[in-house]
User: Fold this.
Amino acid sequence: MKKLLFLIISLAGVTCSAQETSKTLHLYFHLGDYSLTSQSKKSLDSLLNVVSGANLTISSINAYCDTTGSVEMNRELANNRLQTVDNYFQNKGIQAASKKSVGEEYPIVKTVKNYHQWRRVDVSYTFSNPVPIAEPSTLSTNKFEKVNLDSLTSNGSDAIVLDIQFVPGQDVLLPGSENEIWRLYDFLSANPKAFAFIRGHVCCANDPLLSSARAYAVYSMLVSQGISPTRLKYEGFSNTMPRVEEYDEESRQLNRRVDVVFSKIK
Assistant:
């Protein structure tokens, strides 16, 4: 019975175990820079907010960089990124158990093309007695690739719901959500004729400011990584475009979302 219950909870994408939970937060940096981006700062803040009241342990901090500069420059850059993140936790009274500057010795196949993903620091952490955390559900990583720009009408594609989550009542992305935005970034990078209309939605009550701020959080991350603002638009629709009628938490969750509509630039 316990195994069945655990399977149901896992499929629902909810972490509510009273046991120790291990996760990794990816923090991305701008080219040649080691200061925290606004999104990385929000991710760190949201981590502490989410596990508030739990026993948080930073098991490791690993720093990486791309191969743009010399080996020595990259080693120094990775060291500085490591120190930046470590200082953040030390200022909160948290000590990391392990710290390593990997530099440009990226630990996966060197043929990877997404160099923006090299410019990062990985924070591995564990926490016990956590509050329930809604995890972004595991959706197909190819959903953007299925968009056929040549077949789009003047009205654009169907809305594609982004697999991201926010801190309740805020425009702060929960750890892990950035992975979906990187998939959107990869699609836009590979399709320079694609235009993305990013739309924010909330449930329950009229809140145009929050819906717009959440759409902007996605927009600003894409712009900060080099996607031209001329290829993007964001807007908040409050609770005016519900997907389903709201009668319980599950239906409200379906209406709390950020989606994207693609069109083709002529």
About this structure: Residues 2-128 form a domain with the 60s Ribosomal Protein L30; Chain: A; fold (CATH 3.30.1330.60). The helical segments are 2-11, 38-50, 71-91, 178-190, 208-224, 249-255. The first strand starts at residue 14 and ends at 15.
